[in-house]
């Protein structure tokens, strides 16, 4: 089991932890809270607080079971997560188990999120918001119920697409290179498989083309162009080439212009490719993101492990990212 011990390093005074994937999944569960619950709040925008709170806890229970399955808990199990004063939720969630009854105690102020939604819906800019359904143009600024339904649909769709701002990249990723869906019931692995499928749409264009397209839509400017250039240099060092997608097949274009099918690539290349592609996407979008990566160094030679560390640090040091 991997372990980290820290004493008197900046704000870290005395830490001794075994590094477990269960802890990483718990962090992901809490960070995903807002993305999980917002569609529910839009759906019940005009409902009573008590009804919403009941559904809210059912949703949390269902999501928790989905991620962790049938874990065995003792009567002393306690999990507490504080979102911190910098988070707009500014609240906490407590989970505890009593005998066989699963209970969530949420200190989240749902009314506060309702208020935030109302402020967003009443924004003056919405008065000019229009959308085209087929050939019909609808001015949503005059139809608040339509705005609520439309906003809920957008958030629900984004939540399903996994291209939001919280990401979990599990270990044992090589199956992606074989282009098949996982047989495991692990929802984290399945979600990652879906994420890769959606990211592949981005990689119909190569890295340079994506950068130029982003630059074009930013009116010729790209704030982190230097970071992206360094990233591609490190990526080529790890992969010994560049990832390309042709006719839904994955290849590595090697430095000597040989095109290698990813299915035939080394295990380190298969394990690392979608870690690196996901990070490239996040750097290119340059939005605040939180990402958890299990075993990013798996099956890589020491020199490539070092470069992978640099790649991840480039993301960690941009904007308000957390890795």
Q: Mind explaining what this structure looks like?
A:
With 323 residues, the chain is of the alpha+beta class. The protein is 46% helix and 20% strand. The chain has 10 helices and 12 strands. It has helices at residues 21-31, 33-43, 49-68, 110-121, 144-161, 187-202, 207-217, 225-239, 267-285, 302-316, and strands at residues 3-9, 12-18, 78-82, 92-98, 101-106, 130-133, 136-139, 166-169, 241-246, 249-254, 259-261, 290-293. A hairpin with a 2-residue loop joins strand 4 (92-98) and strand 5 (101-106). It is globular, with a radius of gyration of 22 Å. The model is unreliable at 131-135 and 157-163 (pLDDT under 50).
Q: What's this, in brief?
A:
By secondary structure, the protein is α+β, with helices and mostly antiparallel strands. The protein has ten helices and twelve strands. The chain is globular, with a radius of gyration of 22 Å.
Low-confidence stretches: 131-135, 157-163
Counting helices, strands and paired strands, the structural category is alpha+beta
Provide the residue-averaged pLDDT.
76
- Largest β sheet strand count, sense and barrel closure: 3 strands, antiparallel
Strand percent estimate? 15-25%
What order do the helices and strands come in, and which of them pair?
Elements: E1 3-9, E2 12-18, H1 21-31, H2 33-43, H3 49-68, E3 78-82, E4 92-98, E5 101-106, H4 110-121, E6 130-133, E7 136-139, H5 144-161, E8 166-169, H6 187-202, H7 207-217, H8 225-239, E9 241-246, E10 249-254, E11 259-261, H9 267-285, E12 290-293, H10 302-316
Helix pairs in contact: 2-3, 2-5, 8-9, 8-10, 9-10
């Amino acid at each position: 089991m991997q372990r980290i011990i820290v004493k008197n390093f900046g704000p870290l005074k005395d830490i001794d932890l075994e590094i477990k994937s269960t802890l990483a999944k718990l962090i992901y569960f809490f960070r995903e809270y807002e993305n999980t619950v917002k569609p529910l709040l839009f759906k019940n925008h005009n409902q009573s607080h008590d009804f919403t709170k009941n559904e809210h806890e059912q949703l949390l229970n269902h999501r928790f079971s989905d991620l962790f399955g049938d874990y065995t808990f003792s009567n002393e199990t306690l999990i507490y997560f504080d979102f911190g004063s910098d988070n707009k939720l500014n609240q906490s969630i407590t989970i505890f188990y009593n005998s066989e009854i699963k209970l969530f105690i949420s200190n989240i102020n749902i009314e506060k999120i309702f208020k935030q939604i109302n402020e967003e819906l009443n924004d003056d800019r919405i008065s000019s918001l229009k959308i085209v359904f087929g050939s019909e143009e609808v001015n949503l600024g005059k139809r608040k119920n339509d705005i609520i339904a439309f906003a809920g649909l957008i958030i629900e769709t984004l939540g399903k697409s996994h291209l939001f701002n919280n990401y979990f990249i599990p270990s044992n990723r090589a199956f992606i290179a074989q282009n098949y869906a996982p047989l495991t019931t692990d929802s984290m692995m399945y979600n990652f498989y879906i994420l890769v499928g959606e990211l592949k749409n981005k990689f119909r264009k190569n890295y340079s083309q994506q950068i130029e397209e982003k630059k074009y839509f930013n009116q010729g400017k790209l704030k982190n162009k230097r970071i992206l250039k360094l990233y591609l240099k490190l990526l080529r060092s790890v992969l010994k080439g560049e990832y390309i997608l042709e006719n839904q097949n994955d290849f590595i274009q090697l430095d000597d212009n040989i095109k290698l099918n990813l299915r035939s690539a080394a295990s380190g290349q298969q394990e690392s490719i979608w870690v690196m592609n996901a990070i490239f996407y996040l750097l290119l979008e340059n939005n605040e993101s939180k990402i958890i990566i299990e075993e990013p160094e798996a099956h890589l030679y020491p020199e490539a492990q070092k470069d992978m560390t640099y790649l991840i640090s480039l993301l960690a040091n941009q904007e308000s990212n957390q890795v």
